[in-house]
Amino acid sequence: MGIDAKTILFITLAIALIAGLSLLVESRATRERAQWIWGLGFLTIAAGCGLTPLRNGISFQLGVWVADGLLIAAHILFLMGSARFLRRSMPWRAWLALAAWLPLAAWPADDSQTLAFAVVNAALVAVLALATARMLWRHTDKSDWTSRRLAAIFGLHGLFYLVKAVLVWVPGGFVDIVSLKGIVIQLSLVEGIPVATLLLLVMAASARRRREAHLLSLADSDPLTGLLNRRAFDARAEAMLRGNGAAAMPGALMLCDLDHFKRVNDTCGHAAGDEILLTFASLLRVTLPAGSLVGRYGGDEFVALLPQMDPDSLSRIGATLCARFRTGHRPAGDRVIATTVTIGSAMVRPGATLAALLGEADAAAYEAKRRGRDQMFIRDADMAPQEEAPVRERRCAHA
After folding, report:
1. Which end of the chain is more exposed for a tag (fewer CB within 10 A), N or C?
2. Into how many domains does the chain fold?
3. Could you list the residue range(s) of the whole structural domain that residue 10 is in?
4. Among 343, 305, 345, 340, which residue's Cα sits nearest to residue 323?
5. Packing angle, helices 5-30 and 183-220, rounded to 10
6. Residue 307 is part of a domain; what is its CATH number?
7. Any long-range contacts for 239-244 (C-beta under 8 Å, 24+ apart)?
8. Closest by CA position to 280, among listed 343, 317, 225, 230
9. Bridge partner residues of 376 (DSSP)
10. pLDDT digits (tens, 9 = 90+) for 244-291
11. CB–CB of 312/267 below 8 Å?
């Protein structure tokens, strides 16, 4: 039994319309602009499906040139939406697809030319779909399985249209592009149904996953500095110590207290205090080595877990933090604020827990403050946990 082209077109139109409207509605909830662009792509496909029956004795230009051109435009929108989803710029070459399609409007609508429409249309759709798949695959993390699935669907879709462009010349493949007869034409109509359905499901899932990751990030982040908050730092630091094994991870815990911060808030206002906190948070980001875990523990207290760290390297990092923060005066209205930081550090020992390291770093910070602030002290790495916490002095060299 043959495939009823009109029925398949109606089903495809209905799916594309539902997909487009669903993505447009959901984009308002997720605030993901990519979904809005993807939704426009599906609505463009729906419009093309609605125009396709006009090719049969009513209007070749509307039923073939415009309808098939809308399929190309839809895939440009899919590529644009994917670029937006990845926070990347739209490849300008994608617009060349429409430029290649426009001249076909002047071609006569005879049998010798209709195959050209089929070849060019299939080739352009294939290129756009494969470009979308490549972008999604290259610029998403391996753990983002929803985006990887989206890339796979576009990839398979692009390969299908690439084969379709080749099969145009196979006898019986394209019998009549106007009446939609021929095995390749009918397979193409059928292929659109599962592809549209899968794209809708995976696009929605990708946007929801992005939204959930954003909400999780907000829950784990300090709202002012963007660093990890105390709860998130504790959880990740404990996992870091357990996962790497404290015995195999020579590292250090660094506890940073901004000196006389309350005085800054009282005399210059909380806005000035916030600027100082942001300045120190940025300084931590650019000074600490890659792989460090950094958080704001509360108020003017910051904490960092540094893997693969020896006392000498830690001393240099602490000296750099002290010196840069001391010399980085911050204006507050017509006043200039000079601030310093006191740092206490503890070297990671085999079997050390986060609570023990925090206690040792806090004791080291207290000792640093007792000796004059604006400096770092490192607790000796070879001392037993139960011993009193004497520290190795690592004074920051004053300019």
Report:
1. N
2. 2
3. 5-220
4. 340
5. 10
6. 3.30.70.270
7. 240/293, 240/305, 240/307, 241/305, 241/348, 241/352, 241/353, 241/354, 244/307
8. 225
9. 343, 394
10. 544 445 789 999 999 888 887 777 788 888 888 998 999 999 999 988
11. no
Give me the half-sphere count of Cα atoms (radius 13 Å) on the Cβ side of residue 196: 29
Separation CA 374–CA 395 (nearest Å) = 8
Query: pLDDT below 50 — which residues of the chain?
Result: 1, 245-248, 381-399
Q: Which residues neighbour 298 within 8 Å (Cβ) at sequence distance 6 or greater?
A: 230
pTM equals 0.63
Non-local CB neighbours of 373 within 8 Å, separated by 6+ positions: 259, 340, 342
The residue written with tokens 């753990």 in the block is 143
Report pLDDT for 105.
67
User: DSSP letter string over 81-107?
Assistant: HHHHHTT-PPPGGGGHHHHHHGGGGGS
* pLDDT on residue 398: 39
286 and 361 both lie in a single domain: yes
Tokens for 248, please give them.
Answer: 């195999």
Asked whether residue 172 falls in the same domain as residue 63, the answer is yes
Which long-range contacts link 189-193 to residues 24+ away (Cβ below 8 Å)? 189/3, 189/5, 189/8, 189/9, 189/12, 190/3, 190/8, 191/157, 191/160, 192/8, 192/12, 192/45, 193/8, 193/11, 193/12, 193/15
Where are the strands (E) in 147-247, listed by range?
A: none
Q: For residues 217 and 325, is the Cβ–Cβ distance under 8 A?
A: no
95, two tokens: 């617009």
Contact 136, 157 (CB under 8 A): no
For 210, 227, 295, 300, 307, the CA distances from 232, given in Å and listed in that order, are 19, 10, 8, 17, 18
User: Which of these, 289, 339, 341, 352, lies nearest to 316 by C-alpha position?
Assistant: 289
